Automatic annotation (TrEMBL):
Source superkingdom: Bacteria
InterPro entries listed in its UniProt record: IS701-like, IS701-like_DDE_dom, RNaseH-like_sf
UniProt-listed Pfam families: DDE_5 (PF13546)
Matches recorded under PANTHER family: TRANSPOSASE
Source organism of the structure: Streptomyces formicae
Protein name: IS701 family transposase
Transposase IS701-like DDE domain ranges (all copies): 7-218
Length: 422
């Protein structure tokens, strides 16, 4: 809280922000304003709702504090920036940016919002350090009435997801985040403008691409599909290397790399599953000469963002919000990011200094290092709220049921009016 206290001009929203963060770190079943207010001992959810919607504070400034905090505690050599998106399944059409669209969260097309995120990963840990809410072009950008109802600023215009990713990368680099590499999945690797922007900035990348991607071999003279290049590789072109530690040990794959284009620092990297034979492809560029092992390391780091999403949703309620407004979305997401990076920082600072050895878990019975879920569990025990009286529990139960009855009444009236034409 000392990091962000100065972002609040009044004591009331500052106190609410502290209670909100403690609620996100708590064992509350759902991390929405109702349950966070009850967790904090409030009589009603008003203070939490005002914090997200009406209180005067700048979520982008707090986001900057999150980024600095992450670098201070997790920063070390070999840092990588990772771009990816995650979906938030929603009902209705009033939430900012919501529409029927594909989301990997559900694995299909759903009515959802999509957030594009930037993660920062090092050998000390990983955390989310920036976010953008994707605003669909057809259903939102040109609908002035809908934009106004959701509180979307006039300055916000349509931007592709790779464009949003580049804005976050550039902001991080401008802020002094030391990261020599950027990685991302196919949605971002297929975008030539993003790759060109990274090259112009002198930042290396290892970006996943589709098997149909055409590359130029033979010093740039011959265009050919990436999967065709892989099919023509001799057996001795493949090397077994680990893409980093996994839950069950080092993640070993077969890897091959091929010079493409006319520069010696541009490669096609191919990963082959040693069991199924499934292939994955990456376009790589670096400002200086690098080894295959370094490209493999960066490709393996990409999965850190998935771990961030999983921890953010399961531990600090990243997707538990029940808000529709543009400002409210950014405020909740930013506070959830702050809660997550706090847990990551505690885990990094508490980790014992041990020599790097990927085979150590197979030879040692020592306890594993403290994890984000374990730290949150310990914190909730130490900072848990005092026992709540039965009267307070019943008061909240009565309020919730009255509120739900009002919402049900409104829904029934609206549906009845639609059916009768009244």
């Amino acid at each position: 809280m000392a990091r962000i206290a100065g972002r609040f001009g009044r004591v009331e929203p500052r106190a609410s922000a502290r209670a909100y963060l403690l609620g996100l770190l708590s064992q509350a079943e759902r991390k929405n304003c109702w349950q966070l207010a009850e967790q904090a001992g409030h009589i009603r959810p008003g203070p939490m709702q005002r914090l997200l919607r009406y209180a005067r504070w700048d979520a982008d400034a707090v986001r900057d504090d999150v980024r600095v905090y992450a670098v201070d505690h997790l920063g070390t050599d070999g840092g990588v920036l990772i771009v990816d998106e995650t979906g938030f399944v929603k009902k209705g059409r009033a939430s900012a940016g919501v529409q029927r669209q594909y989301t990997g969260t559900a694995g299909r097309i759903e009515n959802s919002q999509v957030g594009v995120f930037l993660a920062y990963a090092t050998s000390r840990g990983r955390a989310l350090i920036d976010r953008r809410l994707y605003l669909p072009e057809q259903s939102w950008c040109g609908d002035l009435k809908r934009r106004q109802a959701a509180g979307i600023p006039e300055t916000v215009q349509f931007a592709t997801k790779p464009r949003l990713a580049w804005e976050m990368i550039a902001a991080a680099l401008d802020a002094g985040v030391e990261a020599a590499w950027v990685t991302g999945d196919e949605a971002y690797g297929q975008d030539p403008q993003l790759r060109a922007a990274l090259e112009a900035r002198g930042t290396g990348y290892v970006m996943a691409v589709a098997c149909s991607t055409r590359v130029r071999i033979n010093s740039g003279r011959t265009p050919v599909r990436a999967d065709t290049v892989a099919d023509r590789l001799p057996a001795n072109a493949w090397q077994r290397q680990s893409a980093g530690p996994g839950a069950k040990g080092p993640r070993y794959y077969d890897w091959a790399w091929v010079h493409i284009g006319t520069g010696e620092h541009r490669h096609l990297l191919v990963r082959r599953n040693r069991t199924s034979g499934e292939l994955a492809f990456y376009l790589c560029w670096s400002p200086t000469t690098v080894t295959l092992a370094e490209l493999v390391r960066v490709a393996g780091v990409r999965w850190s963002v998935e771990e961030c999403f999983q921890a953010a949703k399961s531990q600090v309620g990243l997707d538990h919000y029940q808000v529709r407004h543009w400002t409210s979305w950014h405020r909740h997401i930013t506070l959830a990011m702050l809660a997550l990076v706090f847990l990551a920082a505690v885990a990094a600072d508490a980790a014992p200094k041990r020599p790097t050895d990927p085979h150590r878990p197979a030879r040692s019975r020592e306890p594993i290092s403290l994890t984000v879920p374990e730290i949150r569990h310990l914190l909730t025990t130490v900072f848990g709220p005092p026992a709540v009286t039965a009267a307070r529990l019943l008061s909240w139960s009565t309020w919730r049921r009255h509120h739900q009855a009002t919402a049900r009444y409104s829904h029934y009236r609206r549906r009845s009016a639609d059916e009768t034409g009244g």
